[in-house]
Amino acid sequence: MKRMASVEIAAEHERILREIESTDTNCIGPTLRSVYDGQEHGLFMEKLDARIRNHDRDIERMCNHHFQGFVDSITELLKVRGEAQKLKSQVTETNQRLQNDGKELIRSMEELNQCRVQQRNIANTIDKLTHCLPVLEMYSRLQEQMSAKRYYPALCTLEQLEQTCLPRAGQYRFCSIMAENIPKLRTHIRDTAMSQLRDFLESIRKHSDKIGQTAVKQVHNHAVSGAQELVDFSPVYRCLHIYTVLGLRDVFENYYRKQRRKQARLVLQPHSNMHETLEGYRRYFNQIVGFFVVEDHVLHTTRGLVNRAYVEELWELALSKIVAALRTHSSYCDDPNLVLDLKNLMVLFADTLQGYGFPVSQLFDMLLEMREQYGEILLKRWNITFRQVLDQDNYSPIPVSTEEEYRHYTSQFPMQDPELEKLPFSEFVPKVYCQLKEFIYACLKYSEDLHLSSTEVDDMIRKSTNLLLTRTLSNCLQYAIKKKNVGLAELVQVIINTTHLEQSCHFLEEFISNITNVPPDTVNATKLYGTSTFKDARHAAEAEIYTNLNTKIDQFLQLADYDWMASPPAGGTLSASDYLIDLIAFLNSTFSVFTNLPGKVAQTACMSACKHISTSLMELLLNPEVRQISIGALHQLNADVKECESFARAGPVAGFQGDTLLLAFSDLRQLLDLFTQWDWSTYLVDYGKPTCKYLRVNPHISLALLEKMKETSRKNNVFAQFRKTDRDRQKLIDTIIKQLRNLITQQQA
């Protein structure tokens, strides 16, 4: 084993030696370290010494082999040394000369080198200045722009300075100072731009009235212009651009819209006394126009600062506020001229905003709504006018003495074949007719510029005129007819006047058609109710005549003073009562005035008066307070009825056929004939037959009257039982009463 280990060690040492011989000396460190790390260091050293000795012997052999050549070389070298000394002297001398000559060159080279260093420094300086000068120039430009308040260009310059110029300039102190100032400058620009925007917003708020006024005038005068000629929008554009560059566009948009919404609410809030003058409405509308003119321009020039939805939202808000304000304030107005001026102002307001693209149909709907209010105001105004006309009228036919007077009245009221000496109607007829036309003109004025068709205008005017006729004028006529102290002559004139006004209605129809250009026979065209209005007024006047006439008759009848216990006439003819004679005279005088009335009216009045007299006399007979009636009283009443019948036969009013007027007294006549002639047998036998002489005598009335006569016989003839004639008459009355009662019972059965 030891032997084998020795062999391995020897082989390893041999390898190491070969490696040392063949390897670069710089790389034998690890090899030597392996020797020292091993435990056979001495043995290796022995081998190394043996190897060195071998190499020394090889070197010695080699040197011995080349020694002669070496000697020859030394000999040659000695020969050369002399020459070398000469050469050295020459080289030294040449070198000295060269050194002397080179000093100038070196000095020139040093100067050249210094120049090149300077040139390089200059080039570097120029290069640095090339990068720094734009910074300084741009900063100088920035300062000029800031001084000139050109903030958007300043912000663009600032952006270029920060992003491009300063990074190229390098790390210089002035660059650092500039870089530190950049955020401050941005903040200053932003705050200044916002301040200018606030000033702009405040300015347009204060001057929105003037802006709107100018815009309205331009539309009214058909001038081509825009809001840019009225307002300097540069603060808005500048602030928008600045905030966009700063990345704050959303912030700016929200702020602008919020502030304008606040201003919109202020603009849309009317003054509490706006309704008092037209100027209040004009200022209100001008402010709104000014607001939306500005917003429309901003919408079309800023690309998104406000959008269509935002503007439409504001306009919807405005419409609701405007309509509400107009409903409230216009309701206080009672002047039709102010309403008309307000309507014209609203039309101009709507047309102006429509020209800017805003929908205004709600405003025109509001105008139509106000049309109803305007109509009501007109009706109130014309109610006063009509009453004044009626109160101031003298209710007498208009006297006409000259052709000029005739033309004057016929120019005011259409007539056909009038008498030149006298017009049958009074002053209120032409005045009322003229006022009707004035009302129609007033209605037409409101309908102008509402973008309505001729048919719609015609319909509106006709409906309003119908309201004037059926409500206002009708009430005024009723007032004139029903007022206290109106006489029969006045009522007669009212009937004549309304008759002529009724006949003029078709002229009013033509008048409306002429101003609206709509034929009166157009399908679905509204017809005027004038005919029915005047006809109703005439009927009311006729009824009032009948009522007044009956009232006058009642006043005469109140003077009646019958002696219900009068004795039978001894002989001769009884005269009519004084009150009745006066009544007949009054009726004759009254009916003479009725000559201008339509025939049926006069006839009806006369018949009504006769019936009322007859009924009143019958009521006197049947009055419960009159408990006793003598035959003598019946003879006096009979004389009065004969006077009435004479009046009826005389024909106080033309047009009655035969004895038609006498029929008003037929009930009373048959009753009095029955009692004064004591023809009970005929009455009881023929009762119920069409040919009965006393067909109009009611058994109830006969019974009541007999009861009163029976009572008279009982109380006034205390000794009647002692006289046979009186006893017989009493028995006869009792018998007749009994028969009448049986007759009534049978009739009821």
Automatic annotation (TrEMBL):
Keywords: Coiled coil, Exocytosis, Transport. One of its GO terms (cellular component) is plasma membrane. It comes from the Eukaryota. Component of the exocyst complex involved in the docking of exocytic vesicles with fusion sites on the plasma membrane. Belongs to the SEC15 family. This is Exocyst complex component. Gene3D superfamilies: Dsl1p vesicle tethering complex, Tip20p subunit, domain D, Exocyst complex subunit Sec15 C-terminal domain, N-terminal subdomain. Residues 77-115 form a coiled coil. Residues 47-215 form the Exocyst complex component EXOC6/Sec15 N-terminal domain. Residues 362-708 form the Exocyst complex subunit EXOC6/Sec15 C-terminal domain. One of its GO terms (biological process) is vesicle tethering involved in exocytosis.
